[in-house]
Structure formats: C-alpha cells, structure tokens
Design brief:
Blueprint: H1 3-16, E1 22-25, E2 35-39, E3 42-45, H2 46-62
Helix pairs in contact: 1-2
Amino acid sequence: MDKNKETALELAKILIQKNNVVPVSTISSIDSKSIQYNIDDVNYSFFEIINHFLESIDRIDDI
C-alpha cells in the first residue's frame, strides 16, 4: 500500500473514534453490508471516509 493510502486509512481510523461519530448499521449504496458512520446527521461508509482523505491528500500533493 502506498504512503498516501496508508495515511488516509489512519486518518479515517482516527475520525471514526471521535465522540461525535456514531456507527450505524445500514446498507450503503457504495458498499453493501458495511457499517456506516453518522457525522452531523449524514451517514458515510468507511470507504467514503477513506476516499475523502485520499482525495484531499492527492490535492495537497498537486500543489
């Protein structure tokens, strides 16, 4: 796994441990049978969270 993917994964792990992030059991349109995480009344799959961080890291690398 490349460095950016590892960093995105670690950031996602840290995020889901925050008090305001609540795991919910639901079916995701992206990743069926996955646990989603509720952040500010919006549900995100773990894949979506990782992807958000990875895209942000890639944008920083492009600067």
